[in-house]
């Protein structure tokens, strides 16, 4: 509004050289100020579909039970899991006429992140495309309390809860438990997953290790020194007492297996 003040000052000065132009500018400012004052108590109309609710929340919809059950079974078959473990989350916008229980459909997409498209053909509702998000229930380790960085987990630090993993079931890995080490601060209730936590280090660089080499029914044990640190299942390079360099896998505390 600074230019309005300038215009008013110029008009009050009654300068004839700029009088007409600045008068028009001043009158424009006055009209703007009056409109602003009158509209101070005005409220914006709610956006369509919000019904005056500022939250803008939209109720989720659910298809007919029979149709949803068939979709759940189809996704479970793709993922090779029990249909009872599959959870579905439908898009916020419901179709004009939802599909019936017997509507034919086809899964479209790869299911990345749990997202699928359904190409539906229904003699009652017609053809339509629906979006659904799918996941599976899994038992997951979570922090029982706030954990600082570099903490070796104990049984008291780990709790377990059932959560929904959106997408295909995660690949089986070593279960998180006592001995794992935090790589960053973890809040209470937060999932304990790599890389936030890492398996315990079984071999430390520079430390002596036992090397186990197996050929058929014959097992040979050597003494060596680790060239790098490794957790369970990680590769480690060792140097034997004879000076030979070998590579193996850390399998236990201070033990490296060579196949």
Kindly report the average pLDDT value.
81
Q: How many alpha or pi helices?
A: 3
Describe the global form.
elongated
Stretches where pLDDT is under 50 for at least 5 consecutive residues are 1-17, 34-58
Radius of gyration: 34 Å
Q: What share of the residues lie within helices?
A: 10-25%
What is the string of SSEs from the N terminus onward? Answer: HHHEEEEEEEEEEEEEE
Whole-number tally of structural domains = 3
For the sheet with most strands, the description reads: 5 strands, antiparallel
| Class inferred from helices and paired strands | alpha+beta
Give the end-to-end Cα distance, rounded to a whole number of Å: 81 Å
Number of strands: 14
Percent of residues in beta strands? 25-35%
């Amino acid at each position: 509004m600074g230019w309005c003040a300038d215009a008013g000052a110029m008009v009050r000065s009654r300068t004839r050289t700029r009088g007409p132009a600045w008068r028009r500018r001043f009158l424009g400012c006055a009209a703007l100020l009056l409109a602003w004052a009158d509209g101070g108590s005005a409220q914006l109309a709610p956006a369509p579909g919000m019904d005056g609710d500022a939250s803008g929340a939209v109720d989720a919809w659910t298809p007919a039970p029979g149709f949803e059950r068939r979709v759940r079974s189809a996704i479970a078959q793709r993922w090779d899991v029990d249909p009872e473990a599959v959870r579905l989350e439908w898009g916020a916008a419901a179709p004009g006429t939802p599909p019936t229980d017997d509507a034919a459909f086809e899964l479209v997409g790869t299911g990345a992140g749990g997202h699928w498209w359904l190409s539906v053909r229904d003699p009652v509702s017609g053809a339509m495309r629906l979006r659904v998000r799918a996941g599976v229930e899994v038992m997951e380790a979570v922090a029982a309390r706030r954990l600082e960085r570099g903490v070796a987990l104990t049984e008291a630090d780990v709790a377990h809860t059932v959560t929904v993993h959106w997408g295909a079931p995660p690949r089986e890995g070593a279960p998180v438990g006592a001995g794992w080490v935090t790589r960053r601060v973890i809040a209470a209730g937060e999932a304990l997953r790599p890389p936030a936590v890492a398996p315990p280090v079984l071999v430390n660089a520079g430390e002596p290790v036992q090397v186990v080499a197996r050929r058929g029914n014959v097992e040979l044990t050597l003494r060596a020194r680790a060239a790098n640190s490794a957790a369970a299942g990680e590769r480690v390079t060792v140097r034997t007492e004879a000076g030979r360099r070998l590579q193996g896998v850390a399998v236990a505390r201070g033990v490296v297996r060579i196949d």
